Amino acid sequence: MALTEHLREFRNRLIISAIATVIGMVGGFFLYYPFMEWLTDPIRQLNEQESREAFLNFGGVGGSFNVMVEVSIILGLIIASPIWLYQLWAFITPALHKKEKRYAYGFVIAAVPLFLGGCFLGIITMPAAVFALTSFNPEDTGNVIEAVPYVRFVLQLVLTIGLACMVPVLLVGLNMLGILPGRTLLKAWRWVIILVLLLAAIVAPGPDMMVMFYIAAPLMSLFFLAVGICLLNDRRRKKKQAKQEAAYASRTVKATSAEELRKVQGS
């Protein structure tokens, strides 16, 4: 397609993704109060189980409304993730051959549960992160937790882990396009482990190493699974290229032999 057609297609898919996100935001408004109940549960546990004094503070008159809008936007993105993930991959897959598209669609299907599974992993680890971050209080002190930074912290935690779980799908997609060889990924495994551990330490700070392990282990497993798939795909692509080159060489030899035979007959 021409550049203008690509831009037109990108605009149309962006509009579809935006409409789906807006519809998801409407659903996010209805889920706001149950979501806030879950969000404030670790704070209640601090007061009941840990005998600490902590409460959530909505600063300003419109503080609670601003939090509602932010939460609804993020929930809208999560609810609409099957739509915008499909639109993203549908914009990329025309560059693939017909056989490769089947694999691409399979990874599109895998991206949604991986993203949602990563968000769920963030939800599970969120209470432990809250306990760890508030455990540094001196004695006879409490926590007046501002609602906006707290909500942003939790949403960033959930979305960061969700997007991190999607990275292997992106790596496999780039490999399908022939941009990223599997051996290049394999050579970078040490840096990937460092980055994964750093990410796990950031999103799950504190002395509890098990929380960090629960985050790092699935991410590293997904990365090495993606590397294995990329290596297999590279091997398949090389075999296909070798067959094509052999067939081309065979046709060239036959054509040359036929031409030489005509020359001999003509002489």
Automatic annotation (TrEMBL):
Q: Where are the transmembrane segments?
A: 12-33, 71-92, 104-133, 153-176, 188-205, 211-232
Q: Does the keyword Protein transport apply?
A: yes
Any one GO molecular-function label of the UniProt entry: proton motive force dependent protein transmembrane transporter activity
What family is this protein classified in?
A: Belongs to the TatC family.
Its record classes its membrane topology as: Multi-pass membrane protein
Q: Which UniProt keywords apply?
A: Cell membrane, Membrane, Protein transport, Translocation, Transmembrane, Transmembrane helix, Transport
GO cellular component terms attached to this protein's record: TAT protein transport complex
The record's subcellular location field reads:
Cell membrane; Membrane
Task: Report what the protein is called.
Answer: Sec-independent protein translocase protein TatC
Q: How does it assemble?
A: The Tat system comprises two distinct complexes: a TatABC complex, containing multiple copies of TatA, TatB and TatC subunits, and a separate TatA complex, containing only TatA subunits. Substrates initially bind to the TatABC complex, which probably triggers association of the separate TatA complex to form the active translocon.
Reading the lineage from the top rank, the first entry is Bacteria
Q: Which InterPro entries match?
A: TatC (IPR002033)
Extract one GO BP annotation from the record.
Answer: protein transport by the Tat complex
Question: What does this protein's UniProt record list under function?
Answer: Part of the twin-arginine translocation (Tat) system that transports large folded proteins containing a characteristic twin-arginine motif in their signal peptide across membranes. Together with TatB, TatC is part of a receptor directly interacting with Tat signal peptides.
